[in-house]
TrEMBL record, chains A, B:
InterPro entries: Alpha/beta_knot_MTases, MRM3-like_sub_bind, Ribosomal_eL30-like_sf, rRNA_Methyltransferase, SpoU_MeTrfase, SpoU_subst-bd, tRNA_m1G_MTases_N. The keyword Methyltransferase applies. It comes from Nonomuraea phyllanthi. GO terms for cellular component: cytoplasm. This is RNA methyltransferase. The lineage of its organism: Bacteria, Bacillati, Actinomycetota, Actinomycetes, Streptosporangiales.
Length: 269, 269
């Protein structure tokens, strides 16, 4: 524990962390905030990623193992008031733990090195809702994906809501940020992946396509799906079949269904 | 269009609608609010369900077909100010259309009559987050489920956030509210459905179980899953396999993966 409890939201240390709630400053500082015990626990597993940990006295009592872990790893722990923690989070009921982390993403051209033989990759193109994006990262991780790529027109994965919705998955698998769609698709094809665009206008349904081989899925915008030029770049456009009266699925649930269909086809004979 | 524009949030008509933002009044009046063009469109397909439609001048211009439809069906249309609409909705950016609807759910003991041969049913037990519950309804509808059952400890499906997340599906399939879990499970078993509890502690994974027959899925609470007594009532406890490092899936994405696995197994040879 360093020094006395931080109670002044205008103190330099708090201000330096608080600016990370804004995308421009996250990019400038190459840092972001991970909030809540789950995210902090996963961040602490990566050496050099958590740079500072802010905690309330209450959270310290509730999660002593995280404080111990941070201390062992040489991450400075700062006791802070609830008010200070609230300044750093966008949640209605903050859980009293916030870690300042350094960026963890990899550049698109380093992905080849980061993943030897990719078999399942999720690409988020024009996904704008941070909750959806985080939920897709979590589903991709659960389905055993090798990487997640955020294209240049997508939400910032370091957005607080996105980090929270990812439930730690942001720290689990290689994440690429800001890749131009065309470059990402070209690279994935070169690596031998079949690139499938998930879109309600697809000619084929999930049930008609063979998903046993290495596959990259492209997921589009919540409201208007994927633009023509991306549909054209894909090897195939595939829709989740709708058996009832619903017009469509929510983006994150559709992505989970696609990714798990691939995971199953790649594993179950 | 009836009368002049409603601008007073304290007018009796607005107050009568506004009280429906509270669960106790929804139950007392047996009415609820459906917000946005998609929900209003689906509500208008059911005779006698929409009782009043509030619209801003802007929304009227954007969705003239809905105003025409309401008028043809004898649903009174009330022009209202943006401020009045904002009073009736909990959205950050209301879309200017709110319908007062009568309840559409069916009692548990009327479900047998409503659905001749159920093959896929979703049961929400202790689901508390309205967004999750609505997303599960939408996924169940998309997967061709025959009914959705909210047990007595679950969120109110008429909650504004839940109606919105269901994207119209609340109006598409029979929804049971407030059923005791044990009674629901008994009835589903009597109808010949295999009752599967979706839980991370399941012995079997989705890939190990034969889902071709009539199936009811029970989904539990976001944080703590399903209680022992429900796990004991189920024919089997099944987990979505986790192939990566994620601890679990978000409730709604897990539900979508389970429901689509059933839908596929029941259709694809």
């Amino acid at each position: 524990m360093t020094g006395s409890e931080l109670t002044n939201v205008k103190s330099p240390r708090v201000k330096a962390a608080r600016r990370l709630t804004k995308r421009a400053f996250r990019e400038q500082d190459r840092r972001f905030l991970a909030e809540g015990p789950q995210a902090v626990r996963e961040a602490l597993k990566l050496d050099g990623v958590p740079l500072d940990l802010f905690t309330t006295a209450e959270a310290e009592l509730r999660h002593p193992e995280l404080i111990t872990e941070a201390t062992l790893k040489g991450v400075p722990v700062h006791r802070a008031s609830g008010e200070v923690i609230a300044e750093l989070t966008q949640t209605v009921t903050p859980q009293g733990l916030v870690a300042v982390c350094r960026h963890v993403h990899v550049p698109l051209d380093a992905l080849d090195e980061a993943v030897a033989e990719p078999r399942l990759v999720a690409v988020l193109a024009h996904v704008r809702d941070p909750g959806n994006a985080g939920t897709v990262m979590r589903a991709a991780d659960a389905a055993g994906a090798d990487a997640v790529i955020f294209t240049d027109a997508s939400v910032d994965p370091y957005n607080g809501k996105c980090v929270r919705a990812s439930a730690g998955s942001l720290f689990h698998l290689p994440v690429v940020i800001g890749a131009p769609v065309a470059a990402a698709v070209r690279q994935l094809k070169e690596r031998g992946l079949r690139v499938l665009a998930a879109d309600g206008a697809g000619k084929h349904t999930l049930d008609d396509v063979d998903l046993a081989g290495p596959t990259a899925w492209i997921f589009g915008n919540e409201a208007w799906g994927l633009p023509e030029e991306i549909l054209a770049e894909a090897d195939d456009v595939v829709r989740v079949p709708i058996y009832g009266q619903a017009e469509s699925l929510n983006l994150a649930t559709a992505a989970a269904v696609c990714l798990y269909s691939s995971a199953r086809a790649q594993r179950v004979p």
